[in-house]
């Protein structure tokens, strides 16, 4: 009897873990990564972006390449758009435009 209970318990735990992994993959597929060409010249501009853009709706990750003057933003397309992110840049007085867009598939 104990073996049957342990087997059932292990099966239930296994299904729960498998389901959690499926949700993580689903969430990753629901993000969009866009590279923006931004008018940034110094570390202060980069810090201003790092301090503000992550708080725009749906933004998951922000990466800045200062020498290339680009900002890569990963966000949830259900909560924001490229135009919305550009407006976020405008709020902090940084000119930006979309350079490239690629949907993330993990």
Description:
The chain is α+β, with helices and mostly antiparallel strands and 106 residues long. The chain folds into two domains: 1-30; 31-103, Alpha-Beta Plaits (2-Layer Sandwich). The protein is 45% helix and 26% strand. It contains three helices and four strands; from the N terminus they run αβαββαβ. A four-stranded antiparallel beta sheet has the order 2-3-1-4, covered by helices on one side. A hairpin with a 4-residue loop joins β2 (59-65) and β3. The longest helix is centred in the N-terminal third of the chain and has 28 residues, at 2-29. It starts with a helix and ends with a strand. The model has no long low-confidence stretch (mean pLDDT 85).
Task: Tell me the number of structural domains.
Answer: 2
The count of DSSP E runs of length 2 or more, i.e. the number of strands, is: 4
Order of helices and strands: HEHEEHE
CATH class category of the largest domain: Alpha Beta
Walk across the major sheet and give the strand order. 2-3-1-4
- Give the amount of beta strand, in percent: 25-35%
Mean pLDDT: 85
Radius of gyration: 20 Å
**Architecture of the largest domain, according to CATH?**
2-Layer Sandwich
Task: Please give the largest β-sheet.
Answer: 4 strands, antiparallel
In CATH terms, what is the fold-level topology of the largest domain? Alpha-Beta Plaits
Q: Strand pairing plus helix content: what structural class?
A: alpha+beta
Which percent range fits the helix content? 40-55%
Task: Please state the overall shape, judged from the principal axes of the Cα atoms.
Answer: elongated
Q: How far is the N terminus from the C terminus? A: 42 Å
Low confidence ranges = none
How many distinct helices? 3
């Amino acid at each position: 009897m104990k073996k049957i209970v342990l087997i059932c318990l292990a099966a239930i735990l296994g299904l729960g873990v498998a389901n959690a992994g499926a949700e993580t993959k689903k969430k990753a597929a629901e993000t969009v990564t866009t590279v923006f060409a931004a008018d940034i010249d110094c570390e202060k501009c980069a810090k201003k972006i790092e301090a503000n853009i992550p708080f725009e709706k749906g933004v998951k990750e922000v990466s800045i390449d200062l020498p290339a003057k680009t900002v890569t933003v990963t966000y949830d397309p259900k909560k924001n758009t490229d135009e919305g992110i550009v407006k976020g840049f405008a709020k902090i007085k940084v000119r930006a435009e979309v350079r490239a867009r690629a949907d993330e598939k993990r």
